[in-house]
Amino acid sequence: MRDLYRRLDIHVSASDADIARAIARCENQAVKTDAEDVLRVESRKREYDQLYGTLTGIGLLRARMGLSHAPYWNGSVANDFSISADDEYARYAELKVKVARAVRVHDTWQQVRRMMLWSGGISLVTGAGVALLVFAPDLF
User: Fold this and answer.
1) Same domain membership, residue 104 and residue 69
2) 86 domain-assigned
3) Are residues 72 and 29 in the same domain?
4) Which pTM was predicted?
5) Reduced to 3 DSSP states, what percent helix, strand and coil does the chain have, rounded to the nearest 5?
6) 18, 29, 109, 125: which could form a disulfide with 14 (CB 3.0–4.6 Å)?
7) In this predicted model, what pLDDT tens digit does every residue of 76-124 receive, in sequence order?
8) From CA 85, how far away is CA 71, in angstroms rounded?
9) Are both 99 and 64 inside the same structural domain?
């Protein structure tokens, strides 16, 4: 789906008159046709704006995760809703650190748990041995 607002160089809240002027000065016939068919019909514009909001949110989320399309997609319709994964939005390194920390905490907990189970098992066996010595000395 094309980002008609970006391709027409207008804001999402542009008036009908601004949209009409932008469509008139657009040199790309395919964008011009799409804009006429979508932005000039109120019901289609309303549906487009809902989808536009969703796709913009997904583009922002991808950028914050440090994801972007390959450079050869620049200028393509497939890249219309991608936001550059620059330092302001990219959170990939931060996410990587948080995941590594969570893995370390999990691994440490597993080690402690194993030690507790092992020491608990030794305590149980030792306690059972002592109990047998005390309560059934004739077995030994």
Assistant:
1) no
2) no
3) yes
4) 0.55
5) 75, 0, 25
6) 18
7) 666 677 766 555 445 666 777 888 888 888 888 888 888 877 777 777 7
8) 12
9) no
